[in-house]
């Protein structure tokens, strides 16, 4: 019987081989995504770090998310996710160099709705260069399950981002 592949270890390998760095901005995952990335030996070669901006105001003050956007739509919004991912790339620059990739998590883990959004409503934000993307998720389960699924889907999303950036 062969061991199942470790998607996070594979991602760290891809980042390292490509000479890419990543920075993480988290809200509902509260550090779980960064912890998952740095669980892999050698992650220090590519993981710049992570910011947990759980309170809405910190998304603005620490990550540069537009205050008007937050006031109008709240923290659980696709553009908030994108701005978090962009902001963390510059906030966690190393030796004057922005991280190559930014990934962000924002959403409602539950058990109660937040700001009119139901539990399981999640947005992943991705940023590379001048581009940014949001991935909407509708997850089910309890709070722990939603947070764990968000981490797994974020790892998968970064894999996909790297793959589509490779030359043919």
From TrEMBL:
<feature type="domain" description="CinA C-terminal">
    <location>
        <begin position="10"/>
        <end position="160"/>
    </location>
</feature>
<dbReference type="GO" id="GO:0016787">
    <property type="term" value="F:hydrolase activity"/>
</dbReference>
<protein>
    <submittedName>
        <fullName>Nicotinamide-nucleotide amidohydrolase family protein</fullName>
    </submittedName>
</protein>
<dbReference type="InterPro" id="IPR008136">
    <property type="entry name" value="CinA_C"/>
</dbReference>
<keyword id="KW-0378">Hydrolase</keyword>
<dbReference type="InterPro" id="IPR036653">
    <property type="entry name" value="CinA-like_C"/>
</dbReference>
<dbReference type="Pfam" id="PF02464">
    <property type="entry name" value="CinA"/>
</dbReference>
